[in-house]
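>> received
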Amino acid sequence: MLVVIDPAAAAQVTIQPSFQKDPTLQKYVYPLVGNKNLVTLEGHEWKMWRGIFNPGFSSAHLMSLVGRMVSDTVLFTEILTDYAAKNTLFELEDAATRLTVDIIGDVVLDMPLRAQTSENELVKAFRDQVKWLPVPNDINLFRKYNPWKLVKHRVNAGIMNRYLDKLLEQRFATRRQEEKAQLTKRAKPIIDLALDTYLSETQQDGAATLPALFKESAIDQFKTFLFAGHDTTSSTACYIVHLLNQNPEALEKVCQEHDDVLGPDVTKAAQIISDDPYVLNRLPYTMAVLKEVLRMRPPISTVRMGKQDQFIEYDGIQYPTENIMVWPASYAMQHRPELWLNAEEFNPERFLVKEGHPLFPVKGAWRPFEYGPRNCIGQELAYIELKIFMVLTLRNFDIRAAYEEQDLKKGKDNSAHTLNGDRAYQVLIATAKPAGGFPAKVTRRVR
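>> returned
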């Protein structure tokens, strides 16, 4: 493996040229997202499907769907209110994942998945599939070669595919009824824009049935969006809470910004955002906090495949890549003191200063959604989701890590399990997540 921690060298891997994804990645994510996913597709096929789904993930279109995201997040705050009243110990990562799944169901399919209030069949199978994914460098031979794993992969994949097949057919039937009745409806879900593009490009406008090739790809893409949201948005929500608790001055500044832009009455924030989604773009410090959290705790990175005659030049030396996995390591790059002034300090000001300031980020050094043409298609959705999460929770609730309470409940003392003194270190479960699911307690905030 060739580990790349220099932005200029990484650009030679992900921008020009863009190395192909390493085949190991496909083997790893296949049980979860299938063959037609945007993460591992290559060449013309990737370009075609990325182009088909791009319109739905544009910033302008996502703004038309903000009301749905707000409704799901309001439900999340109601659940937190109940936890606060009952002094409940809960895993924030699980709660945030269920919120993310509800949002994805609403904005992608216009279908309520109700993951926050019930045991959804799709979510249950998806979460179980994650547990059965291979563990890198696993030395437990039984776990590594357990034949039951293949059975679980097949069963869970069947459950997810049948569930999504049914939802897509339902959405297609509803769409046709709306078109026939010439109904004026709210903003289209992402899947409708993707289908519009696909039918136009394949000259199948007016198709009476959902095209089989589109459905096959849409099923895998939806699972990919679940995978990305499950890992990126939910884990980042945990670290927003955690890092702001460790940096109370930043927490007070972000809450003050919400007061200044949305008004001090926190009960009106949800309606204000729903009425004017673009108010979210008037929260520069909130965005800076979000970017700094993603710098310090990036949830993903990429692995690429080297090949003959492809070299990476660094410091005057040409490094061959043939038969080598190439890893632009986002965590290492985003913590390098040569690239970031006081790299281990939480400082959102890095993303507010102007070019030329010592804090200003080096080009290509910040890459939590990767960098170049293969960057994450859902990053704008993640930004919007997380800003809504911050606005509707930070002024209302005090959410604190509760690892000691989790230890007492389980009857185990895991206090020695820390990294740099922090129990909420990142662990690899599909992608980087907070250890232990981030056990938490919540109270209503008094300001």
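>> The mean pLDDT is 91.
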